[in-house]
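I hope you will forgive my troubling you with a question about protein structure. You will find the record immediately after this paragraph.
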Amino acid sequence: MERITQHFAVPLFIGLSTIGLAGPVAAQDDWPNWRGPEGNNHAPEATITPLRWDLETGHNVLWKTPIPGRGHSSPVIVGDSIYLTTAEADKETQSVLKIDRQSGRLIDQWVLHRGTLPDRIHRNNSYASPTPAFAGGQLFVTFHTDDAIIATAMTPNGRELWRTRVCDFQPSAFQFGYGASPLVEDDLVIIAAEYDGPDSGLYALDTRTGKKVWKVKRPSNLNFASPIVGTIAGQRQLLIAGADMISSYDPASGRKLWSIESSTEAICATVVWDGRRVLVSGGNPVAGTWCVSGDGNQVRLWENRVMCYEQSLLTIANHVFAVADNGVAYCWRTVDGKETWRKRLFAGSISASPLLANNRLYIASQDGTIYVVAALPERFDLLAENKTGDSIFATPVAIGDRLYIRCGVGYGEERQEYLVAAGRVTRGNSDR
């Protein structure tokens, strides 16, 4: 592993004297992995995020840090630090960045892989799409590199603890790259590596040693979904969709709990749940949203033809929100799929998943606009629109009193990525 120490001056729109207004960073206010502390993309109840901000004027923008390279991973936030993966195609590197949470200063860049990027990926993918996971004082990072999925465990200061070649990863029919984020459950790092090859499967590694504890063989089918663990019907379940089914496993052993023929071949989205129900949306080759029972009874409850291909759904009690690929937002009852409202938000594309914070949905479109919608099941209420650069592929994160947004400014070779912290700079008028 190469270490590149960088101390970039961070351009602040609001001036250094105003940073203190955001308050101290509480170590317990963490966002340790993909989809947050509970795996449902809900910010903790105490989170306070702004309704409006402006990247050009700096209104409610605490800092804006340039990011080398490109990636679609979301930030992981632990204590005073932010960890983010990136890849620089011109240098053929895949790296982990460490950023100071309070000031946005780029503290370190640790190059994990050099010269082993995949030959081809989809033009809308990146070489750094999986979000890392942090648990037990360790950072766990996965990359598709050297024709394999490589997992690395690191200390918070970048010291490598172990590195494991999880499996070969050489898709043949479609070279679209990789996107599944790792998760940590107890003392296991669980990684999905699904493709049209013999090593397609779910893998569990020991967090302390990186040694393989169990493997679940999955169909030889290119899939991009991240596994997720939640408590459904009173039981901890490891959930994943794809290969025309939704499946549940015991996260400790990998034993299959149930599987139901539903969904479609290739799924990018992460499964969500509501009480005893499990839901997912996708679109290749069949477009749709599917809801099944999560108690092992293998009952298909309802489905429709709305496609959320890359972005995940978001559930609240008894309802689920969706933002389709065509820019139309929906709310359905989870018990029967009855639509309670629908509204067109935009006419472009979307990759990021909706985020719940302050009883609001933060919905980022690919053109860099973040729509803030009241998380109400009975009616649609658009609260604000915030242009945040020219492109957003990564899902924003909300924790403490800030919203963290990975965005791009400019296009093509002139595109520059940033990590932006939007927060309430002044009290009383921050949402105006």
